[in-house]
From TrEMBL:
The lineage of its organism: Bacteria, Pseudomonadati, Pseudomonadota, Alphaproteobacteria, Rhodobacterales. Pfam families: T4_deiodinase (PF00837). The keyword Transmembrane applies. Keywords: Membrane, Transmembrane, Transmembrane helix. One of its GO terms (molecular function) is thyroxine 5'-deiodinase activity. The chain crosses the membrane at residues 246-266. SUPFAM superfamilies: Thioredoxin-like. It comes from the Bacteria. This is Iodothyronine deiodinase. InterPro entries: Iodothyronine_deiodinase, Thioredoxin-like_sf.
Length: 273
């Protein structure tokens, strides 16, 4: 089935990736109430925001099976969950597929979307609940359509911290520490990009390969420099994801330096002749 919706896309576009790098004005942030939800759970039953927290703060994280940022941030989130999961309820909202392909296409029905969420939970051994948004992304649109963002609330459901990327685990960890002690986080919002995106690029080829060749081809069309960096970063497995990207960037830099050196030497040789 081919999508006719901008939200439920079958091919990732540069315009979609560009929207991921900043929160839109007017979307829920610190001081606002987190939207109320009542959604199916990946493992059966339903997740109701007013019932699941039990008068505890909640961390809501967006993610999907084909999202490299989700795959890269989940290990750090699991470490944070081990530390704060007793005081703060962690919930992941499974949203649209970030990089749909022929193996993991964009879901057009709830059964498929729930299946994808269940596979994500199993793949990453996630210890928290996964709520599955509807196929048109009703809750996701209310929040801001970000692929791997976080919203942390107090006991009353008021947002006290939000982060553009869950992979900024340092800022998130500080916020969780404050909220676990009944305090308001010193830093109310994070829009840090370098570390989270480096980690995401480090697993990008691995994740898009799981999705299918179409996902890889779409990435090359939408963001050729990112696709090239991800391709080189993949050669540096099993380094940690962000170090793979750093190594890839260094490789490109060394290659460019060597090329400039070779061209300079060739010109000098030509002049001597």
């Amino acid at each position: 089935m081919t999508s006719t919706s901008d939200y439920v896309y079958d091919h990732v576009q540069a315009s979609t990736l560009n929207k991921d790098i900043a929160f839109r004005p007017g979307t829920p942030g610190p001081g606002d109430r987190l939207p109320v939800f009542d959604l199916p759970a990946a493992t059966g039953g339903r997740i109701r925001s007013h019932a699941i927290t039990g008068n505890k703060p909640m961390l809501l994280v967006t993610g999907s099976y084909t999202c490299p940022m989700t795959a890269a941030s989940n290990p750090a989130l699991k470490r944070l969950h081990r530390r704060y999961g007793g005081q703060i309820v962690f919930v992941m909202l499974h949203v649209r597929e970030a990089h749909p392909g022929e193996r993991f296409d964009q879901p057009h029905d709830m059964d498929t979307k729930i299946r994808n969420a269940r596979i994500l939970k199993e793949r990453d051994s996630l210890p928290w609940a996964l709520a599955v948004d509807d196929t048109q992304g009703t809750l996701h649109k209310q929040l801001d359509e970000k692929p791997n963002a976080v919203w942390l609330t107090d006991r009353e459901g008021t947002i006290v911290y939000r982060g553009l990327w869950a992979g900024d685990d340092e800022s998130l960890g500080e916020a969780l520490e404050a909220v676990s002690k009944g305090r308001t986080p010193r830093k109310r919002e994070s829009t840090a990009r370098l570390k989270p995106m480096a980690a995401g690029i480090g697993v990008m080829r691995e994740v898009t390969q799981r999705s299918g060749k179409r996902a890889e081809a779409d990435l090359w069309k939408a963001a050729p420099p990112v696709a090239a960096l991800a391709r080189i970063a993949d050669l540096y497995r099993p380094l940690p994801p962000h170090w793979r990207t750093a190594a890839a960037a260094a490789t490109i830099g060394l290659g460019a330096t060597a090329l400039v050196g070779a061209l300079t030497s060739a010109r000098k040789s030509a002049r001597k002749r």
